[in-house]
Every structure is written in structure tokens, then in C-alpha cells.
Amino acid sequence: MSAKMAKERNISLAGEILRQRFGERFQTGASIREQHAHTLTYLAGQPPDAVVFAHSADDIALIVQVCAEHSCPVIPFGAGSSLEGQLNAPLGGVSIDVSQMNQVIEVHPEDLTVTVQPGITRKALNVYLRDTGLFFPIDPGADASLGGMASTRASGTNAVRYGTMKDNVLGLRAVMADGREINTASRAKKTSAGYDLTRLLVGSEGTLGVITELTLKLHGVPESIVGGICHFPSIAAACDAAIQTIQYGIPIARIELLDAVQIRACNAYSKLDLAEKPTMFIEFHGTESSTQEQSVQFGEIVNDCGGSDFQWTADEAERNKLWQARHDSYWAARGLRPSADAVVTDACVPISRLAQCVEETCADIEQSRLIAPIVGHVGDGNFHTLVLVDLENETELAQAKAFAGRLSDRAIAMGGTCTGEHGIGQGKKAYLRDELGDSVDFMMMIKNALDPDNIMNPGKIF
Amino acid sequence: MSAKMAKERNISLAGEILRQRFGERFQTGASIREQHAHTLTYLAGQPPDAVVFAHSADDIALIVQVCAEHSCPVIPFGAGSSLEGQLNAPLGGVSIDVSQMNQVIEVHPEDLTVTVQPGITRKALNVYLRDTGLFFPIDPGADASLGGMASTRASGTNAVRYGTMKDNVLGLRAVMADGREINTASRAKKTSAGYDLTRLLVGSEGTLGVITELTLKLHGVPESIVGGICHFPSIAAACDAAIQTIQYGIPIARIELLDAVQIRACNAYSKLDLAEKPTMFIEFHGTESSTQEQSVQFGEIVNDCGGSDFQWTADEAERNKLWQARHDSYWAARGLRPSADAVVTDACVPISRLAQCVEETCADIEQSRLIAPIVGHVGDGNFHTLVLVDLENETELAQAKAFAGRLSDRAIAMGGTCTGEHGIGQGKKAYLRDELGDSVDFMMMIKNALDPDNIMNPGKIF
Asked: Which chain A residues touch B189 with a CB distance below 8 Å?
């Protein structure tokens, strides 16, 4: 029997045991398997052999134990919104769907913490928290699951003020490759107790363990939220405004850049009539006096950079309409070429290099004749392009990938990273070593030590 | 030849090679060796066999390579201010003194980052930064080295506002057990590129690698700094004021509690005449209007909790005198019983449990008839007692250790940690598993994978 056949037999044996144990919650139908491997991007879906819908940490531990006995890969699945192929099953195996583990376990408003199951989405969590005066700020756009957000070290629009998932996961529980569930940290706000397994698991993309529970930091809903919008004559001018805002230490809560192409897409998709210019969406959080102070300071920077008058409003409905458009920018951009697929990029550079990096990228887009709108969490030096490609056209796909590669190279050469928030997954593996060199060897030593049979989401990161 | 003899012979061989290579920078004199193993606490010093003064990352790589070939332990040494025996050499070996690697490598004011050698101290760094309008906020009291602060995941008085070393180290370089130097991260503000080796090394107490360089986040010197002091009728009332301050989301920069015994000690040591009551030292950072707003809000909380009028000042000299007294509190407390040694504790609990934890600890001190002043970074739920013990008196030492054990148990039972900022070292090993259970097994797997011969600061954490 070949190694491949032996592997298939093992996976099949694990499946039989799981089918007996989980009944209807064990599924092997083609459409369910395909749903669990969709990638939202140009990466081809690689469906798992089966999907199990987990209801508890004990379920997850049992699944991992059975799979470990049979060297069968496990792939955790939350909301399915990752962008670098993290959900694919290149070696087959079992997708552990935690979307039904979507409960809040306990809120400690007095400690500003909440403990949740991994399948709850960020929007559902914030609906739950509505009456507490608290909220969870991390907002990657998609209504992602908290387990998935932790696994990819997600961030998004609010990160410039509130940090990323690395900063907002206080501790977590995870089932490791040997089937044991561990608790990585106490609920204390800070600790020096041993290795920081919390932050080792955050961003590990399911390759070290399956998250079964998370304790998150919460923040008080600001007394005053003021939002606004302004236009700039050029991308460079907009980047300069972002750079100055950060350098002056204005505690801005959101500072998002959309280029003219993206604004055109948003106008069409979200029924807006914004000027088709490089545009910034802004938000300030604080007391009434501090948000007013911040708005005035920011307005001065915008003027200095040649931007339009900064229009701001405290009206919630108006603000929400703008931010919904921002969050729908992925779908809006796809609407520019509905039949196409997307090559998504995710560069992040030290903010001093932001204007140069974005400008060179714009020039590259133009020279490469790509349709590739730009959106960016520019306060963090992080931006994305979404290159629309016809997958049937090999030349076009190759051009888009080459462009994405040049952007990774450019960001790395500027002291930045090939991924600010999407993760490495399958799509960025080639760049990880360019960025971090021999560090990757030590990551692999950790992977091999904690998952010697390589069953935890294999084929990702490395 | 016994294993012990073989080990000694190996260490001796490594020493010979290092002596040839480093000449005068290789030292084996008793007093230098003892200085490199002082513990500032009851823990007995365990001197290394030799000390090498490193001048560069290449020096460190060479030392580690030579030591790795001979299975000779290496113990990194910065300023020597750790409190849990992290500098001891229980298995002998070579202390790598990095105190002469104390240069700033580059400042990027526009990115709010600085890259430094590991031996620079926090005060020296801030002197260097004086003209940039920026500062590095982490302040553990002692003038510790940045490498040491990273290694123990230090924090201190400003952490309530600016976070701990885990939040302020953007990336680092370290020589690993095989002698290779790695770079853990780019200079981008955020990243999702692979495992978070930065935060794995931060807090690893030299057991995984020797830090050779750190890139740190800087913060703008606040336009306005306002500080003050207030007294409370009881420890519980003071803790309640801290709890409310955090829950109301006041972005306080420092909120330090000293009990009446500690105030008595500070009055004597720092020539002050503060009322001998539970006392809070406070600081606000922001714009003039925001610090004023915060001061007023805080003053109301103090009143509600029965505290004295909150006296505040923007005068720098007055503020500095108070904070110097706070930072000297360790030496002030030792002055209460000059011939004694110290058993230092370091509990941290969710802030909702702070008042109860501190009160029960006070009752325990009283019942145990110990001299043990309390100081705390109470905004983080973190506090210390310093139990003064006569090491000649075994009963007394046993009582102090038992008290410290009960405090760890109490903090853990309340969902907290046995160490908020000092680390595990030698002193807290017994509590790590109580706190984190099977997680410790996975920490050990990482340790074994990255340092299979256990040469990196052996005998610490595990």
C-alpha cells in the first residue's frame, strides 16, 4: 500500500469513528465540503473529506483525539472569511466547524473582559454586549468569528487605536495535537508567568491547536464618537495626512484610505455619490471635548496636506452608512468586474514609508494595466489592493500574482511585512522566509514539537 | 568520569576557549562572579563559573556557539535587577554580561520606534531621547536594562496606560541555542506573518535565546503631565477608587498604591512627611484640557470612596520627588529592617477582585506578624509585598515563604496570576503549574525543541 493510500485509509477510518459518534453532525456531502473550503480569492478550494459540527470543547477534543490516532488532518472553521486559503484541506482531513459554538460564556463588565466560544462573530458579540456600555473593537470588515480572528491575528479599521487580536485576547483555551485542552493564561490583565502561549496561538492559523474558548478585553463605548470624511488631491497627500496624524499622537480611532477606483466601486455598490478622489474615512472616540479637540487638530493636518474641508458628524445613522460602505468595499470592488476572481494583497510598512510604498504600488498597477482598487488602514501603515483577474486567463493571473509578489518584496525592503492582517496561509508562504529568514526554522521547530504528525491544519504557513 | 565531572570538564573547556578569545573580557574572579549572581532577595546567589563582557551580537553568537559545543550553560546578564533569581547559575556556566552593549542603534522618530542594544537601561534610553519629543514609557522602578525588561516581561507604574514589554517590543534579534541569530519581526506596526516569536521570547527569561537587539515602540511626551497624591481611610477604599477609575475608562497614566507601612518607610528613606495612611500616587498624561478633565473625574471618585482631597500639580520637580520616592520604595522598605533580606511577592488579579485580594493579604500579614509593606500598580490589579526576613532564622524564612505561597494561591484562586511582572525564575516555579496546568507541558516541549541540551539559562521557569 502506498503512503498516499495508507493516508486515505486512515482518514477514512477516522471518519467512520466520527460518523458513529456525531451522527448528523458528521457530513461528507460535496456541497458542504466545498463550502468549507471556499477561499474568497483566486486560491482554488481544496475541500476536506468531511465536516464535523462541534458543539463543545469536549467535541473538539474527541475529534482531535480520533484524528490524531489516525494521522488525519484537522482544519478549524469559523465563519469562512479568511483570505489566504487557511480553510483549505490540501492533504484532506476533517474540517471542524465551530460556528455553532457561538455563545458568550461569561461577561465581567467590572474587569472589562468577556469569555466566548470561538464561533461567535464580532457583530453577534457586540449585539450581546449592547446593554453593558462595553464593546469589542476589533473589526476586520467581514463578520468573522472570534476564533478565526484570533487564529489569523486579525485587526482592521479600529486597530490604530485599540490594537490587533494579539493585544485584545487576554487568554484562550485550545485543544492541542495530542487531544489535551490547555488554558494559556489567567484573567489577570498582565502576567509574567512562563511563555506567552496566548500570543503563540494567536496568529498560528490553526497549525498548533484548535481554539475552544477566548477571553477578550472589552472597552467602554466612548461617550462621544465623531466621524467624517475628506478628499485629497493625491494618494500621496492622503498618506502624508495619515503620517502626520500618527506622528502628532492624535488618538484617532479609525483612519481609512480608499483610492478613486475604490470610491467609484463603493458609489456603485452602496448607492453613494462621493467624489471619485482619494478619500479618507475618519473616526474619533473620546469625551465630547476630546473628540472635538481631535477633530480640529486633524482638520488642520488635512488643510496642510491640501485635502478638502474635513466634514464631520456625530450622527450615528450617517456614520454607519459610510462605514457599511467601507466594510462592503471588498464586495464593491468585486462588482467592478463581476465575473472575475480576486488576488488580495496585504502589505504593512513603517508609516514613514507609507506614502512611497502606496505611490510605487499605484504606479505598478498602472504599468501592469490591472484593475486593482486600494484600501488601507493607513494609520497602521497597512493597505490592501484587490486585483481582479479572470482565472481562465493564465497570463492575467500570472501578472496579478507577479504584482502581488512585487508588493510583498517592496514592503519587506521598506522594513515592513508581506501580511499585516490576513496571515500567511497558503498564499504567502513564499514570502515568509524572505521577510524573517532563519526565524522560520525556529517556527518550524515549534510546529514539529507541538504537532509531530503534522495534523493541525497542515500545508499552512510553512 | 561521573556526569557531574564530565559537565565540569566541559564547562572548563568552554571557558578556556572563551578566555583565549576574549582576554580581559573573560573573568573568573570570585567577586565578579558573585556580583553576577546577586538576587536582591532571599534567594541565595549561585555564581557562574565565568563572566564574559560581550560587545556585539557576534560576540554573543560566538559565546553561545562555544558553550553549545561543550553543553555549557549561558546566563544573560543586563543590569542585575531581576527579583526571582533569573541571574543565578544553578548548573554553573557562563554569564554573558551585555551591560556594555548599551548603544542606541537607530531612532525613527517618524515611526515612533527606536532600535537599541540590550544593555541600555531605561533611564539612559530616555536621556538619549530627550530632544526627540518621544519617550519609552515602561518603568519597572529599577533602572533595568531593556534586554532584561524584555526577558522578564517587565511593566511597572506606567503599564496601566502604555502596556507592558509585551506591548512595546516591536521586534527583536536573539542568538538561539544553536548560535544562530534571528530577527523575529519587521518594523511594521502590525503583522500576521507566522508565529509571534517576538512575544515568545519576551518573558522567556533567557531560556530560549539571548536578546542581542530590540526595536521598541516610543510614545510622544505628553503635552501635559499632571500628578498628584491622595490618602484613603483604608486599603479597601483605595482599591475601590482604583477599580472605579479603570471601569470608568479614565486613561490614567499611573495609579500606585502604598500602604501605611510603606509610607512610613518612604518618609524615613526619602525625607518626606506624608500622612501614614494608605496613599495613592497618580499621574495623568494628555493635552491640557484632557488632563484637567481626567483630574476632575478622578477627584470625584476619590471623594466617593472617602479619600482625602486629591492634591495635584503640574510642577515637574514636585512630581519627580514623589515618583523618586515611589521608585525607591524597595530600598525604603528594606530600611525598615536593614539587616534583613526580602521575600518579594508579585500577585496580579482581575481588578474586580483587587480589594478582596489586598485585604485578605493584609489580614494574613497581620496574623503572620510579618513586616511586609504593600505597594501596587493597582490599575492593573497588580501588587507586591516585601516581607523582611532574617535569613539566619529558619522559622521566620519558612513563615515568609508560606505567606508568599498563600498569596500566590489566593491570586490564582481569584483568576489571577502568581506573577504580574517579576517572572517565574527560580522562586515561582512551584506555582506555574498550579496556575496554568498542562500548558506548562507545552512550554517545556518548546523549550526542549529550541534548546535540546538545556544550555539557555537552565533551572529557570521549569
From this structure: 348, 350-351, 380-382
Give the A:B interface size as CB pairs under 8 Å. Answer: 270
Q: Which CATH class is domain B224-315?
A: alpha beta
For residue A416, which residues of chain B lie inside 8 Å, CB to CB? 186-188
Percentage helix, strand, coil for chain A under 3-state DSSP, each rounded to 5: 40, 20, 35
Q: Answer yes or no: do B187 and A350 touch at CB < 8 A.
A: yes
Chain-centroid distance, C-alpha B100:
20
Q: State pTM to two decimals.
A: 0.97
Q: What is the pLDDT of residues A309-367, one digit of tens each?
A: 887 777 888 888 889 999 999 999 999 999 999 999 999 999 999 999 999 999 999 99
ipTM higher than the 0.90 cut: yes
CA distance A218 to A116: 12
**Residue B268 C-alpha, separation from nearest chain A C-alpha, in angstroms:** 32
| Class in CATH terms, A104-220 | alpha beta
Query: Are A185 and B442 spatial neighbours (Cβ–Cβ below 8 Å)?
Result: no
Domain B337-424 has CATH 3.30.70.2740: yes
Backbone angles phi, psi at A311, to 5 degrees: -95, 120
Contact between A188 and B350 using a beta-carbon 8 Å cutoff? yes
CA distance B433 to chain A (A): 10
Fold match, B224-315 / B337-424: yes
Q: Which CATH number fits domain A224-331: 3.50.50.60, 3.30.70.2190, 3.30.300.30, 3.40.50.300?
A: 3.30.70.2190
Name, in order, each residue with C-beta under 8 angstroms of A173's C-beta and a sequence gap of 6 or more: A57, A181, A182, A183, A184, A211, A212, A213, A214
What residues of B are in contact with residue A424 (Cβ under 8 Å)? 192-194
